[in-house]
Design brief:
alpha/beta, Hect, E3 ligase catalytic domain fold, 540 residues, four-stranded mixed beta sheet, Rossmann fold
Length: 540
């Protein structure tokens, strides 16, 4: 049985068992102290000359400074050039430094200021805390703060927040400046990676002749029937690289074929940066204002050629990703239902297996389409028949079109005049509705009457816009028909004396599409708007 402790009054005496401020009793080491391993971090956010000098000066300064300290061991000056400080994710030098520090290779990091280290408050605190936990000190010269100081985190948070706010302000000013430039119609082109143009003396894109020829060849080959992959392969095989020295890809060819700058126009603010901290670039799908400048600079390809390429791109992609690599894809039309013929494997599991073209909508209507299936070789032979027909009347055909038809086909003078009048009327209506809004904002008036007037003007504006859109389409169709006719005539001039072999470039130059009729006739709808007919029995 345990003895019971006596009941006493508690005196609560305290004895110091260890005092780091008292030197008595301390054990001293007489080993030679190791040198402190010191690194520095330098960064500039632009590549302008003044900043370039600052970048080089920072590296030289820190190298000399650290090496001049006898008790310091120089590790490295880690640096990032032309990189924003709002995030550390894309800063290779910064990230390598942090990895080395965490790996125990660095004891002290010197940097010019908090803003050089990071403008993102969260990033700054996270990184310095992680380094402090590893025993690595960060010293900010401008602010005279060490991450190891007891009061450092509070001051550090305040200064980092100021740096972050400064970055936000700079970002907004830059965005405001770019928007004013776009409103003024100034065109920005990333010349280092944009084939065909360089910056001219007037600040506008200036054509680089040898590069422009490559662009024109890409457009020409695509209209001749070459695929995106084929064009990329041909350029690479010819030893032609992108401006960055890379191999051509399908996506790179598509970007050239769809960029309106090559026809002399410019769409501004296709992309935007949503968050100044993350710098994430987003495609502008209506979240930001866009501007379209017509005829803003010299064109490399004609607007008509550009529009033809857009239609060809749409034609080849109209099958929802099921594009069959053939010159006949989406160019064969059912004369019964108007649907498109598709490539099929007929009797796929039988000895008489064959590849044919057949109406895709054959069984989608109440009555099954009565148009026949057709083979590649039948289409090829039928086209050779048409080519030889055209060849017989080629010269007279070319003379008539170039002398009489072509000037009339592409004439848009009347449409241009109507467009000008409509634009003036639209401008006047917009002025009226703006005055109406201003008057209602500054003077009391009958709101029902105001709303009625506003709706009336708004309806008229929408009607004018619809008419303008319709005329724009008519102008585009007229110019496209002219370009189609020009391509047709060029194809006609290139025909040999007698055609015996199917030629894909000639097919694309002469034929817009073909119609397969229920009576087994093939109607060739040519690019110039004419038609030629061959019966299927003639080519079987």
């Amino acid at each position: 049985m345990a003895l019971k402790a006596p009941i006493n009054t508690h005196r609560r005496e305290t004895t110091v068992v260890f005092d780091p401020e008292n030197n008595e009793g301390k054990a001293y080491s007489f080993a030679v102290p190791q040198k402190k391993r010191v690194a520095a971090y330098a960064r500039v956010s632009t590549e302008q000359d003044a900043q370039q000098n600052s970048y080089e000066a920072q590296i030289e300064y820190y190298t000399n400074y650290i090496q001049s300290k006898p008790d310091w061991e120089f590790v490295e000056v880690y640096a990032d050039e032309g990189i924003s400080g709002t995030s550390y994710k894309n800063r290779a030098g910064f990230n390598r430094m942090i990895d080395d520090a965490k790996a125990g290779k660095i004891d002290l990091i010197l940097t010019k200021s908090i803003s050089r280290f990071s403008r993102n408050t969260v990033d700054s605190l996270t990184v310095t805390r992680d380094l402090k936990a590893k025993g690595v000190e960060v010293f900010f010269e401008k602010e005279n703060i060490s991450s190891m100081d007891k009061t450092a985190e509070l001051v550090f948070t305040m200064l980092s927040s100021i740096a972050q706010e400064e970055s936000r302000s700079i970002s907004e000013n830059v965005r405001w400046g770019k928007q004013r430039s776009m409103e003024a119609g100034k065109v920005y082109v990333p010349y280092r990676s944009f084939l065909g143009y360089e910056k001219g003396e007037d600040g506008l894109p200036k054509i680089v002749p040898e590069e422009a020829e490559i662009v024109r060849s890409i457009y020409g080959r695509y209209l001749e029937g070459a695929t995106l992959n084929q064009i990329a392969g041909e350029l690479t095989a010819s030893g032609i690289t992108t401006l960055k020295g890379n191999r051509w890809t399908k996506d790179g060819i598509r970007r050239i074929l769809t960029n309106e700058k090559y026809k002399g126009d410019a769409r501004l603010q296709k992309t935007y940066i949503d968050d100044f901290l993350t710098k994430q670039v987003k495609i502008n799908r209506g979240e930001r204002k866009q501007w379209y400048i017509h005829d803003s600079h010299d064109a490399i390809v004609s607007p008509e050629t550009f529009e033809l390429v857009q239609k060809e791109l749409a034609r080849r992609s109209s099958r929802g990703g099921r594009y069959y690599d053939s010159p006949f894809t989406c160019k064969i039309i059912c004369g019964d239902c108007g649907g498109t013929y598709g490539h099929k494997i007929w009797n796929s599991n039988r000895p008489n297996r064959e590849e044919v073209w057949l109406c895709d909508d054959r069984y989608n209507n109440e009555n099954v389409c009565s148009t026949p299936r057709i083979k590649d070789e039948e289409l090829e032979r039928a086209f050779i028949v048409i080519e030889n027909r055209l060849l017989q009347k080629r010269q007279g055909f070319i003379d008539d079109y170039e002398r009489d038809m072509l000037p009339l086909i592409g004439n848009t003078d009347i449409l241009d005049e109507r467009m000008s009048i409509l634009n003036e009327e639209l401008t006047e209506l917009i002025d009226q509705i703006e005055k109406l809004i201003q008057n209602n904002a500054h003077h009391a008036q009958d709101q029902e009457k105001y709303i009625a007037q506003f709706n009336e003007l708004n309806n008229k504006i929408e009607e004018k816009k619809a008419k303008i859109s319709s005329i724009k389409k008519q102008i585009s169709d007229t110019l496209t028909r002219r370009e189609n006719t020009r391509i047709f005539l060029d194809g006609l001039k290139n025909l040999d004396s007698i055609i015996v072999k199917f030629d894909i470039p000639s097919w694309h130059a002469l034929v817009d599409h073909v119609k397969i009729m229920p009576d087994k006739t093939i109607v060739f709808c040519l690019r110039n708007g004419c038609e030629e007919t061959v019966h299927l029995a003639e080519v079987q």
